[in-house]
Specification:
Largest interface: A-B, 67 and 69 residues
Strand content of chain B: 15-25%
Structural class of chain B: alpha+beta
Low-confidence stretches of chain A: none
Oligomer: heterodimer
Mean pLDDT of chain B: 85
Mean pLDDT of chain A: 87
Order of helices and strands of chain B: HHEHEEEEHEEHEEEEHEHHHHH
Number of helices of chain A: 15
Chain lengths: 446, 405
């Protein structure tokens, strides 16, 4: 078997220069490892966790900001990412969207549980019934509340898998009552482990934070006069002395998403928003150029800057590092193969074709690629562990940055392909060069 | 010196593909190294930049009231009185926010009626103990008087009830580039006037690279009791953790109508604010160090290999009269030519990368000092890597030339 013979020759050749072989393997290994680490993180950061609904889910924004300056001077083209209470309430009445949600993070305290000495803070989201169906939240027990509970508002609550573990040891707690902000709430649903990364539905208040542990019907916010705990942006001289004043003022703090099944419904929704904005202008609002938007998830994530510049920078650095590693390897292989030219000359003289010489050295390259890729994968896994540790000690406890460092098993395939192909490409030229050498030169005796 | 440039270059040209690869490797390595070191140096400068705050001796307890008590303000004053009565506490104040974790900013106008410029400083609301608790130095003007501190209103809008403020030096300069700011009147969004009564040294209260990070305004008020109150407590050296533990327990027990969200040292928040800069600096350093190591090992390996594959030629050179040091010189000069080509190409590449980074990420333009240092460093290290194999070459005896292959 010729391939087997070439492989034996290749291994012999690699073993003849153990230092160079080790050097090339390390170069390839570290280059690949750096790329694996940075790509894994970048990939996790830039992912669209609900890609299957990318064409039907839209973030709703309207530019209600002050006439004199854009909302964000660093990104002047963007309207505020959240809505005012009155605009959100108006748009929420529309029957155009198949599903719709308005929501905000709210102060939450759980108390009265057995064995609980002090009330404990709990991350809570006030939201509307469609939240769960719209964002494909899975349920372990029970389910969402119905739309009537939003209007009530009914004292019903959905809790996360983790909260259910803490409070009820993971048992089916549907029907149990817990004290939320001092009021009894009946549990109607326990979510399955749900953690979209990034947390696309609220990237403003921590794109990689864990989702909230408690969800209450939206109406409870105004009913209990609860201010948002997330981002609030106000302008204008509206009085905020009272909760009613806050609700009626130019403060944007409500996140709104709609599910629009087709282009026609999207156009109708946008037309509704534009007509509303124009009618509001009569009362002196919407004084900036008309800028109402329905933004798809993928574009929303891009616009809101979920992927940090630093992670882009590090990704590029990793690829530049890999390039240097490969050039390094190519240089060494070239020198090595050229030294073997007399041997190749003899083999040519004995009847080997150029293609056969090329193939023989290509097999050596392939063997090296394989070894380097293996080393790269191992080092990459180690590197991800190191990054996990780095993020874990360096970020706030509920920020999910360290969750970005998990080696994604599906990614193993592309990492291996990248490693093997790139090294192979680096060895192509040296193998081709030696195949092209005229044998006669190397057969002359000195 | 029998160093023959013509024979040298012809030797190089015979293996020009190899030489080009090494030069290319050096060029890319230089471009990466110079820019990476520059970025790391910036990040480190940001992280170690003084904060102006007594960070290590401060801790924060975050408390939220459960019920809207009408006497909520009284509860804050009770808590403050308790905290200030503790033997190892130097000073304590109640605020709306935590340095390094400040929520938002506020619009301040230079002239009434939304005329003139608007600035958006970050802000804290604190009582007259605030400056002492942070450890901030008053540069001009005065601190708040106790009677100026507004009680914890239910209102959330500062503009409705505050009429004095203290500003950071950077904010004062941004408002009034030429001239004193103390005593000047500026305006809230709702056109209410507010007088600057004091200027403090700049406090770093955010991630150092954050925009408008140094613009800070401090308002004389207790925080709104219906939302979250952050108690900032400055303790004696070495007592922080013990005081924090006891105080958090006491506060949790003293009032059943509230919840203690957390109690944390201020270092926690500074650590978090700097996390991204620190992580980036660490990653850049590791990758750049590996890159440099790989490049040097590559040069070392290649020169070693070239020496061993040219043993016979070296022997011939020696046999026709070349001295040992001529052989060393041959390899060193050969390496130097490749390195020089590499670093020169690398300079152009480094500048291009630096320019691209400044355009793409708004980083400051590459400082030429770094480029020059990088060129010298890489050239010297590259020559050092070739030194050992070149010496080995010199030890090849002339008799090798007479042996057959």
């Amino acid at each position: 078997m010729r391939i087997g013979y070439y492989l034996r020759l290749a291994l012999k050749s690699l073993a003849r220069t153990p230092g160079l072989t080790a050097l090339m393997m390390c170069a390839i290994g570290f280059g690949i490892a750096a790329c694996i680490v940075m790509l894994t993180i970048y990939h996790a950061m830039s992912g669209n966790p609900i890609w299957w609904k990318n064409n039907v889910l839209y973030a709703v924004t309207m530019d209600t900001w002050a006439p004199r300056a854009p909302f964000d001077s660093d990104r002047p083209a963007l309207p505020p990412p959240q809505l005012t209470y009155r605009d959100a309430s108006y748009l929420f009445q529309s029957a155009i969207p198949q599903r719709k949600v308005m929501m905000y993070p709210i102060k939450g305290v759980l108390s009265g549980a057995p064995g609980q000495r002090h009330p404990a803070p709990v991350l809570t989201r006030a939201t509307t019934a469609d939240f769960f169906a719209m964002f494909d939240v899975s349920f372990e027990y029970g389910g969402a509340w119905d739309a009537a509970a939003d209007r009530g508002p009914d004292p019903v609550v959905v809790i996360s898998h983790e909260e259910n573990e803490r409070l009820f040891g993971g048992a089916d707690s549907v029907g149990h009552t817990i004290l939320w902000n001092g009021h009894p709430f009946r549990i109607v649903g326990v979510m399955g482990g749900w953690w979209p990364k990034p947390r696309f539905y609220d990237v403003i208040n921590g794109a990689f934070d864990k989702p909230e542990d408690v969800y209450v019907p939206f109406g409870w916010g105004p009913a209990l006069q609860q201010l948002p705990v997330g981002m609030v942006a106000c302008w204008g001289d509206t009085s905020h002395d009272t909760y009613a004043g806050f609700l009626g003022g130019e403060c944007s703090w409500i996140q709104m998403w709609v599910e629009l099944p087709n282009a026609a419904s999207r156009d109708r929704m946008l037309a509704l928003m534009n007509a509303y904005a124009v009618s509001q202008r009569k009362s002196g609002r919407f004084r900036r150029p008309l800028d109402n938007r329905l933004t798809r998830v993928s574009q929303w994530l891009a616009e809101q800057g979920v992927v940090t510049n630093d992670s882009r920078l590090l990704l590029r650095l990793a690829f530049a590092f890999l390039a240097v590693s490969l050039i390094n390897t190519a240089g060494i292989l070239l020198a090595k193969f050229l030294r073997a030219a007399p041997t190749a000359g003899v083999r040519r003289a004995l009847g080997a074709t150029r293609a056969q010489i090329f193939l023989q050295y290509l097999i050596e390259v392939a063997a090296l690629s394989l070894a380097g890729s293996g080393l790269g994968l191992a080092l990459g896994a180690l590197g991800l562990r190191a990054m996990h540790w780095l993020y874990a000690i360096n970020t706030v406890d509920n920020s999910g940055y360290q969750e970005l460092t998990h080696f994604d098993p599906a990614g193993l395939a592309w990492a291996l392909a990248l490693a093997f192909l790139s090294t192979f490409a680096a060895g192509l030229y040296p193998a081709w060069r030696i195949g092209r050498l005229p044998p006669a030169t190397y057969l002359k005796s000195q | 010196m029998s160093l023959n440039l013509r024979s040298l270059t012809s030797a190089l040209l015979r293996r020009r593909a190899g030489a080009v690869l090494v030069a290319l490797q050096v060029a890319i390595a230089l471009a990466i190294m110079v820019n990476a070191v520059y970025i790391v140096q910036q990040r480190v400068t940001w992280i170690v930049r003084p904060t102006g705050i007594d960070v290590t001796h401060l801790f924060v307890i975050s408390s939220s009231s459960l019920a809207s008590r009408p006497d909520a303000g009284h509860a804050i004053e009770e808590d403050l009185a308790y905290l200030r009565s503790l033997p190892n506490v130097i000073s304590a104040t109640a605020s709306n926010s935590v340095p390094f974790n400040l929520g938002g900013n506020i619009g301040i106008w230079l002239r009434p009626g939304h005329q003139g410029r608007e600035l958006n400083p970050r802000y804290l609301i604190m009582d007259s103990a605030g400056l002492g608790t942070l450890g901030a130095h008053l540069l001009a003007g005065r601190n708040f008087k106790p009677e100026e501190i507004r009680p914890p209103d239910t209102a959330d809008d500062l503009g409705d009830f505050v009429s004095e403020l203290i500003v950071s030096r950077a904010f004062a300069r941004a408002l009034f580039p030429s001239g004193a700011a103390v005593g000047k009147v500026v305006y809230f969004e709702n056109d209410r006037p507010v007088t600057i009564i004091g200027i403090i040294d700049d406090l770093r209260v955010a991630r150092a690279s954050a925009s408008a990070g140094d613009l800070l305004a401090i308002f004389p008020s207790l925080p709104s009791a219906t939302s979250t109150v952050d108690y900032l407590v400055r303790t004696r050296a070495g007592e922080r953790d013990a005081v924090m533990r006891d105080a958090a327990l006491h506060l949790a027990d003293s009032n059943p109508d509230r919840v203690i969200n957390w109690a944390r040292p201020l270092t926690f928040f500074k650590w978090n604010a700097d996390a991204e800069d620190r992580n980036t600096a660490i990653c850049l350093t590791v990758i750049t160090a590996l890159l440099l190591a790989i490049t040097c090992l590559g040069i070392f390996g290649l020169v070693t290999f070239n020496v061993s594959s040219r043993t016979k030629q070296i022997g011939t050179l020696r046999a026709v009269g070349a001295r040992r040091r001529d052989v060393v010189a041959h390899f060193m000069v050969e390496n130097a030519i490749v390195l020089t080509t590499g670093v020169l190409t690398g300079c152009a590449l480094a500048l291009a990368v630096g320019y691209w980074l400044s355009l793409r990420y708004g980083l400051p333009r590459l400082d030429l000092y770094y480029l020059v240092s990088g060129v010298v460093a890489l050239w010297v290290v590259g020559q050092l890597a070739a030194w050992h194999p070149a010496r080995r070459a010199a030890s090849v005896p002339p008799s090798v030339a007479t042996r057959t292959v």
